[in-house]
Amino acid sequence: MQYETVIGLEIHAQLSTETKMFCGCPAKFGSEPNTQTCPVCTGMPGVLPVMNKKAVEYVVRTGLALNCNISSYSRFARKNYFYPDLPKGYQISQYELPLCEGGYVEINVDGGGKKIGLTRIHLEEDAGKNIHDGAGSESLVDLNRAGVPLMEIVTEPDIRSPREAVEFMKRLRAVVRCIGVCDGNMEQGSLRCDANISVRPAGQEEFGVKTEIKNMNSFRFVEKALDYEIRRQTAALREGKRIIQETRLWNADRGITESMRSKEEAHDYRYFPEPDLMPVELDGSWLETIRESIPELPHVRRARFISRYHLPEQDADILTADMATAEWFEEAVRLGGDPRVVSNWIRGELARLLNEDNRQMEDCLLKPEYLVDMLKLIDNGTISGKIAKTVFEEMYKTGSAAGDIVKEKGLVQISDEAGIGAVVDEILDEHPEEVKRYRAGEAKLMGFFVGQVMKKTRGKANPKIANELLRKKLG
Amino acid sequence: MMDIDHVAALARLKLTDREKEIFSRQVVDIIRYIDKLNELDTSGIEPTAHVLPMKNIFREDEIRASLPRDSALRNAPERDGGFYRVPRIIE
Ligand SMILES: [Zn+2]
User: Fold this and answer.
1) pLDDT per residue over B4-23, tens digit each?
2) Smallest Cα–Cα separation from B52: which of A12, A279, A262?
3) Which residues have C-beta within 8 Å of that of residue A358, sequence separation ≥ 6?
4) Which residues on chain A are in Cβ contact (under 8 Å) with B6?
5) How far does residue A26's CA lie from ligand 1's centre (Å)?
6) Residues A303 and A259 in one domain
7) ipTM of the assembly?
8) Which residue would you say has higher pLDDT here, A203 or A411?
9) What DSSP string runs through A49-86?
10) Residue A7: which H helix or E strand, with range?
11) Number of domains, chain B
């Protein structure tokens, strides 16, 4: 029997605000444990939360960017449960009347577009962090993250494969980064993805029993975990077993999902309206102001790159995946770089170097104008295309200008016929055997001679001139 | 009827049989008392989550000093360096 997969995602995105949601503590990641807390975010008696206006605006900005209906009236609720990382004994969240409802994200699957529906986007606070070390009988708690504003995005069960799930996450990540509401870092947990997944016999209307998969902190793990879970559920059903509705954790080391056994037994959140917070009412002019703060969205920019710069779709995908890359590209083109050539350097050498260093475009020392300068040096014959790679890597490492590197390292291309001619003569002297064979008709030896010239000049010989001279002298 | 075991479990309370009997009765009394509100005719009144006519109370996104760590951890049942230490959560 064939089975069909049904996936819905629940994404938590930490908002890039300076401060927490209800107090002025910094929301920054990576500080010493428990150095960013105060009576409000540690749930001391008698304190009152005051809402961070920017957090509300960021969620609305996201809702507008993702085609949602924005609620003109929204309120907050308490979600009650006990956990050591939740000092108040409840999480302030939204239940009825979230800030955004509906909406969709369009993804590309097999060349066609598909809309993944959104159920809602709401605003809530994050919990602290628990650390369980080894086999000890204790857990450690860091409350720096407690109260950091978190946006929860829930999709409809519209996703049909792990690849679609990853596509969705990539699109969503690009949007939240583009509009500046979340840094999208999955490894550090500022963008987290949980999935509800079930399988059902193909053609069956009713959903199968679902499991919830957590702990997938990269695109790759989302795909692997969901792939694994489909195989596990399908195999169980084929053997006539039942799927148990439960939460499972992705174990990256073992490459499997595992049932999460938690000591928490009771699941009854007893939501009720948060009495300490007043409702949020969004009027037209506030909404307009927020709408105006949204820059050109990735899919719009992608379409523009294709039509304006005549780029292939794959180029446009990569260049518009994040704002910094798109801006870098456009700046280089504005300064006179040929769009295709600039795109090739970004997708090739630059992507490789950034990837090797695990860096983002934002941290790139190499400025677009340096690439354009370097391209001019290639065009006017100062450096060879081969040397350009060396220059490029050096610019990337040091942040120096192309001209300086070429001068400093003596990388100027040798184009004068006399200079190259002398090298060619030397090589022909050194390799009489090969010369004989070439003259006897072994034409492929030309490559060998060109290689020797390049070796001797450390890649600086103008290859066109070297070729011409070799051909002439070998007669 | 009030399921006192469920309520106690949610509040992480362990009750003796005698306490369960007393609290069951008391909780039911409380709910009955609150039920008096249902006698009011509210058919013409808009539902609300708040009695105050206020909305959009915000603060700007500006950093204010946090507590020094030692002050923050002063109320901790136990601490371990800069962390709170609690009974193990995950099995
Ligand atoms: Zn605080």
Assistant:
1) 988 898 888 999 999 999 99
2) A279
3) none
4) 266, 268
5) 8
6) no
7) 0.89
8) A203
9) --EEHHHHHHHHHHHHHTTPEEPSEE--EEEE---TT-
10) strand A3-14
11) 1
